[in-house]
Please model this.
Amino acid sequence: MPRKAISPAARDRIVQLIETDFPGALQQWYEAHGELTLVVDPERIRSLCVFLRDHPDLQFDFLSDLTAVDLLGQEPRFVVVYNLFSTIQHHRVRLRAAALGDPPSIDTVCDIWLSANWHERECWDLFGVVFLNHPDLRRIMLPQNWVGHPLRRDYETAEEECYDYLGKRLADE
Model:
């Protein structure tokens, strides 16, 4: 069963509330395939997330996913994507905020939604995005001594790592 598209009334209300309470924080918004995406100022990500969670008309009480996108060759290179759901209002929204600097970084939201803790650790582990003030930012999927972040577009794998689960070289097929 496909997801229910966001209604125009809900979409307009979300955008209007953010533009009113956070002037300048909403850099762009668009709707694609019935889903609302808000491109937001990364400097205001924490206050905006608290607002989205706590406002009685919004109540985005569940962070269903958090990941990053590596836009190698573009600036900003990394964008953090937050997929939010309101279990009360039954609508979804996607936030996109740039992770700036070297290393790329953005403020943590793990004290706003507890589920962000592991999502942020995974994002750091695989993309190298630093979540500032995260209480336990360490690898979650790869060994602690792993070098690099394998979902970066410029990550190079070593030839000897090209094995399938049966131990046969993938290049031999």
